[in-house]
Specification:
alpha+beta, 7-stranded antiparallel beta sheet, globular
């Protein structure tokens, strides 16, 4: 499906759109709706016809975005949803995306979704910081490692050739970026949180545990944030770690939406 769309972008509306801190919750509900609407398409289930997980993370990622207008009275609500699958959407997948109109919200009110357009990431780089091309990327939702830090029997941290503790959040971030096909960053710096509705939101405010699924995680109730810099520009989306298909571990192209430590 070389020419098939890989991005479906929606606006979000409703009586009480959830804050970005509930991105994981809303993404799960959208995922369930797309599985039902597509009659279990592998692009949305992430499994083949034998119910075995697909390899390579080429199935759908669901990203919730908070793109606040300057001077708005936003409290950090989700404004857009982007569904991305590098494998591309087939005919049945497109019908499911076009049929996605409404899901139940995080406190039961219905959340309305309106499909804006279909296309490739470069078609949306001016409207979505998730899909831009940039050298510097900053966490917008928490990165949750899938491995624990490694220590010797004497309790001494095990380190790699670069001096990073194996299994530490920084080491996991670099490792998972490499597995996802991104180049090794030239700099990795922790950030304490992001900015929502004009105020600081630290990572512990985010829901970081799925209600469904058995994805690998090291500490599902705790997330981390980073500013990462590559030697050259890379195209988004950039998302790694536990829950990456449900909006966790998502980065935006460099901007002022992070809290320094």
């Amino acid at each position: 499906m070389a020419d098939a769309p890989t991005v479906a972008r929606f606006t979000v509306a409703g009586p009480s759109s959830p804050r970005l801190t509930y991105a994981l919750v809303l993404a799960e509900r959208i995922h369930l709706a797309l599985v039902q609407l597509s009659n279990g398409s592998s692009v949305f289930t992430g499994c083949d016809s034998s119910h075995k997980p697909l390899q390579g993370h080429r199935h759908a990622h669901i990203f919730c975005e908070c793109n606040e207008e300057p001077g708005s009275s936003s409290c950090g609500e989700i404004t857009h949803v982007t569904v991305y699958a590098s494998s591309g959407f087939g005919r049945d997948d497109l019908q499911a995306l076009q049929g996605l109109k409404e899901v139940w919200g995080c406190d039961d009110p219905a959340i309305r979704l309106q499909l804006l357009d279909l296309g490739q990431p470069e078609n949306f780089e001016s409207s979505s910081p998730l899909l831009a091309e940039s050298r510097v990327w900053v966490s917008r939702t928490p990165f949750v490692p899938v491995r624990h830090p490694k220590v010797t029997r004497a309790g001494v941290p095990k380190v790699d050739a670069s001096g990073l503790q194996i299994g530490s959040p920084e080491h996991e971030l670099v490792r998972l970026l490499g597995l996802a096909g991104f180049p090794e960053p030239v700099a990795v710096e922790r950030v304490a949180g992001t900015v929502l509705g004009g105020r600081e939101a630290v990572w512990r405010e985010f829901v970081c545990r799925r209600n469904e699924g058995k994805g690998r995680r090291a500490a599902y109730d705790r997330g981390y944030g980073f500013r990462i810099e590559f030697a050259e520009e890379v195209r988004g989306p950039v998302a790694v770690g536990y829950g990456e298909h449900f909006g966790m571990g998502g980065f935006e192209s460099d901007g002022p939406k992070c809290i320094d430590l």
